[in-house]
């Protein structure tokens, strides 16, 4: 199930690139989705584009 407030989109990725992202995600104890988002934020920061950190999930209760 998708996280509330997050944009969903289909993405076509080269299988070798996907496999490397999966390996990196496992090493860094992240989901593949979280790893992809981390890498995108990192790439934007290197280009001088700052993105506000993701809001922490709201607790229900």
Label this structure with key terms.
mainly alpha; 2 helices; 46% helix; 61 residues
List the helices and strands and how they pair.
Blueprint: H1 15-27, H2 32-46
Helix pairs in contact: 1-2
3D architecture notes:
By secondary structure, this protein is mainly α. The chain has a domain of 32 residues. The chain is built from two helices and no strands. It starts with 14 loop residues before the first helix and ends in a 15-residue tail after the last helix.
What proportion of the residues is helical, as a percent range?
A: 40-55%
Oligomeric state, counting identical vs distinct chains: single chain
Average pLDDT value? 88
- Written as H for each helix and E for each strand, in order along the chain, the element string is HH
The assigned structural class equals mainly alpha
Low-confidence stretches: none
Question: How many individual β-strands?
Answer: 0
**Principal-axis shape:** globular
Estimated radius of gyration: 13 Å
Q: Bin the strand percentage.
A: under 5%
Measure the end-to-end span: 20 Å
Number of helices: 2
Biggest beta sheet attributes: none
């Amino acid at each position: 199930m998708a996280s509330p407030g997050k944009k969903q989109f289909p993405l076509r990725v080269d299988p070798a690139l996907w496999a490397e992202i999966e390996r990196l995600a496992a090493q860094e104890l992240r989901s593949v989705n979280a790893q992809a988002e981390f890498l995108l934020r990192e790439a934007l920061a290197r280009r001088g584009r700052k993105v506000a950190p993701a809001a922490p999930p709201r607790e229900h209760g």
